[in-house]
Write a structure and sequence with these properties.
By secondary structure, the chain is of the alpha/beta class. It has 15 helices and 10 strands. Strands 3-10-9-8-7-6-5-4 form an 8-stranded parallel beta sheet. A two-stranded antiparallel sheet has the order 1-2. Helix 12 crosses helix 13 and helix 14 crosses helix 15.
Length: about 375
């Protein structure tokens, strides 16, 4: 493939180059994958109003997310196992995001550690936190994020228990991965990926291994993580995290109006309308469908962001038109990373930015802050 014009091109290339178990981990949802597919499908239902004979000569997609200047209202979403899509994946994605001028969010379940990202970047990145039963470990993790001068903590609320993802079970994706014959045969067809992994020391969960008593390798990690996601997480824990962190706090996983009101009451700086990319509750609303009512309910009291199904600059523009102050890309970034490493992440960002800029122009707008519901065809809007 010599000419890459959209995110789908990157996805096809990533599927060729990334081992099946890790590609499927990124490109899948829970159960029937209905919500995963709906995240993309609902964006397509929303139609745009084309305007003409408008001065669109001087355009800018620049915006702000929680007070941070961004080249476009997009951040890199936290994604687990990013370093298994490509060697040193989190480092490469963080460097691409920094060069482009958007935030990068590191997952708790990353391969590269907080310290790795801090050592390879010069601007504050964001850190996503899962609350584990081991509160001492969480305290140390928050302190490490502080020491790395992270600009925001993204607290994920919708993974108290794991949704069942059929592809992961069939592929034997565990910690450590099962060396089945099928997996070994598939690895043999991915020489580029294998050479990359042989050339790095980062092949395990860098934020966990060596930072938890008794967890020194992938084998002991599996036993530890099996019982660590905390189903008792509640709003008192959110308050505890907020106090311990003391900086900007973003709450991820809000889909319900009551939860949105509770997020406001928590004192968080922003919330992310998200269904975890369709990887948790299958049958939940698409994120873009849930967005407008949450914006109407709490948008004047807290900054509202969204993720789920964003595969183009048009998707970004539609989300902004419906009230989102920022959007997040996870799979679009992973496709680029798996396809071409850092250059692929940069390519994904360039594609989304160009689509955003051109679509904004066709809709007769020159500044992202001018974008509102009036650019959308009324009969196609959610709700």
């Amino acid at each position: 493939m010599t000419v890459i014009t959209n995110i789908e091109d990157l996805r096809v290339l990533a599927q060729r180059r990334v081992p099946r178990m890790f590609y499927d981990y990124a490109d899948s949802g829970s159960w029937t994958e209905g919500t995963y597919r709906a995240n993309e499908r609902y964006f397509a239902k929303i139609k745009l109003r084309q305007r003409v004979a408008v001065d669109i000569d001087q355009r800018s997609t620049a915006s702000r997310m929680i007070g941070v200047d961004v080249a476009m209202p997009v951040a890199i979403a936290p994604t687990g196992l990013t370093g298994m899509q490509h060697a040193d994946g989190e480092i490469l994605a963080a460097k691409a995001a920094q060069a482009f001028g958007i935030p990068f969010t590191l997952s708790t379940m990353s391969i590269c550690s907080i310290e790795d990202i801090a050592a390879h970047t010069t601007r504050p990145f964001w850190f996503q936190l899962y609350v584990m039963r081991d509160r001492e470990f969480i305290e140390r993790l928050i302190d490490r994020a502080k020491a790395a001068r992270c600009g925001a903590l993204v607290l994920t609320l919708d993974l108290q228990i794991l949704g069942q993802r059929h592809k992961d079970l069939k592929n034997g994706l565990t910690a450590p991965p099962k060396p089945t014959l099928a997996n070994l045969i598939n690895l043999a067809t991915k020489p580029r990926w294998c050479l990359g992994m042989l050339g790095t020391k980062r092949r395990q969960f860098g934020n966990i291994v060596g930072h938890v008593k008794g967890v020194s390798d992938m084998g002991s990690l599996g036993e530890w993580t099996a019982g660590q996601f905390d189903p008792s997480l509640d709003w008192d824990d959110v308050e505890w995290v907020k106090r311990r962190w003391g900086g900007k706090l973003i709450l991820k996983g809000i889909q319900d109006l009551e939860d949105a009101r509770l997020a406001v009451n928590s004192g968080a700086d922003a919330l992310i309308v998200s269904n975890h990319g369709g990887r948790q509750l299958d049958g939940a609303q698409s994120s873009i469908e849930a967005l407008p009512s949450i914006v109407a309910e709490v948008g004047s009291k807290i900054e509202v962001h969204m993720d789920g199904g964003v595969r183009s600059g048009q998707d970004v523009l539609k989300a902004v038109a419906l009230g989102a102050k920022g959007t997040y890309i996870g799979r679009a970034m992973l496709y680029g990373l798996g396809a071409m490493g850092e250059a692929g992440v940069t390519k994904a960002l360039q594609i989304i930015h160009r689509e955003l800029d051109l679509t904004m122009a066709f809709c007769g707008r020159t500044r992202i802050e001018q974008v509102d519901r009036s650019i959308l065809l009324p009969g196609t809007l959610p709700g």
